[in-house]
Amino acid sequence: MPEINNPDPARLIEGLRDTGYNVPTAVADIIDNSIAAGATTINVTIDLLQDGRKVVQFGDDGHGMSSADVRGAMRYGSDRRADAKSLGKFGLGLKTASSSVCRRFSVLSRTSADENLAKLTWDLDHVARTGTWEMLDEPASPDQQESFGELCGASGTLVIWESCDRLLSKDYAPGAKELAAVKKLADKLGKHVALVFHRFLDAHDSRERDVVININGVPVKPWNPFYPERSDQLLAEAKQQVVVEMPDGSEADALIKAWILPHRRDMTPEEEAKHARITNRAQGFYVYREGRLIQDGGWMDVFGSPEPHTSLLRVEFDFGHELDEAFRIDVKKSRILFHPDMETGLRNLLQPVYREAQNRYRRTSRDEANQRDKVAHASANTNIAATTNTAKPRVIAVDTESQTAEISNNRGPRIRITAPVQDHVNRESLHVEAVTDITSGNLWEPALRSTDNREYVPGVLLNKHHDFYQKIYLRAASNGYAVEGMDLLLYAFAMAEQNNVDPELVPLFEDIRQEISTNLKKLLRNLPDPEPTELVAADLN
Ligand SMILES: Nc1ncnc2c1ncn2[C@@H]1O[C@H](COP(=O)(O)OP(=O)(O)OP(=O)(O)O)[C@@H](O)[C@H]1O
Ligand SMILES: [Mg+2]
Description:
By secondary structure, the chain is of the alpha+beta class.
């Protein structure tokens, strides 16, 4: 014989408070309902009353509800919505979101100005007292009627949260601190709403209809996390459509775009704070269901955990209600799950963009490092100038025009070579200098240099763009001996080349230099670039 085993109302209604909402996600869930009701203006107020009570109200000018509808709306497990596209899905949001923040919440509604306000209230303490799913049906108070007029207008829906025991993260004694905490919360909510509903808030975004959301009377301005005015979208049109297979075998399209934001260095601080807001955790997938953001950032097992080198990459991922089953959206509408096949597909699709984002970050942070390059090559230069008996070629003549020289070396007199010929070089970098204009990609290049334009000596140019310079030299910058040692080693290589080269051997020496440089690059591949913090010590030098 089947046995009916009804849940305990008091225990269940308490338990449903903890389904994982936080205040911003709860607020967004109430706003979802207003948007689904066709509202064009949504007014959210957060009030700290004289007696310390905190009240949050949400008024909208949507289609409103009859008293029977209000009853249905307040039921845990409301009827399925007629419109599958709507943001509502489970028939729970209104109740679970509200009770995650407060112990008493009401819905007041009417569909036209000439109707009375329908109102029902859940009071968790009342449910605990009676041990039944009993609602309160007190009429709207004069204050509440006034609020309705202010926040909704003639018709629409007003949701009121009272006894907000979980609005602030801790209990404050009444006073300035509590007031400041409420203000801070309002700012935080504004930021969240600005992101989650940015397509609705942005009058220039034609993908969704326009909605105005005011928090404590201040209109929320949209924040588009892709900063399209300045970012590059790197996925070709043909690759933006992703076919997703549903559990039942049917298919539908999701849309995907990959944005690389400008590097911090290429933005003003205001621009960065207002538009880009580059942080480590802001990289990754931004997932939209029917235009509403449900997940902001994170790589969702498609790539590893967020790291600074990919912080410029944000992926816009769009799906419609047809794919709800495929993505297993949760009650709070704040996360989805990718099927493992989908993860693999996305990884393959996005790998090149992911790498490009890393490169761009590195490139700009290398430029930055080069600008701040405090690697001191002066001691190697002093040492070389003072050590006259090293084996090296003698420079007979140079031609700056053709960048060639005649030298005498172990192969014989008057050997003609092609090499950078540089005049008016600083004395402290005459023999060794790190430069940014080596195009061969080699770590070093022999050169002929002069502090004026007469006495040329052989020297070596180091390539600041080479990985060895970026990863080893920059790290060694705070250790003068290490830098000097590496300088001297590369100088010695360059002298050995110049002192033993002749026109026939030129390709051989070049091959060796290239091979060493390429091998080093390969060997250093898995060594990360130094983080700015690692270079602080170097800067003090
Ligand atoms: N602001 C509103 N205006 C009009 N009707 C509303 C409003 N808020 C809620 N409703 C009605 O109440 C019902 C229940 O809302 P609730 O948020 O609990 O569930 P849902 O939106 O259907 O699904 P979900 O659990 O995904 O939010 C809705 O289906 C809708 O009919
Ligand atoms: Mg809802």
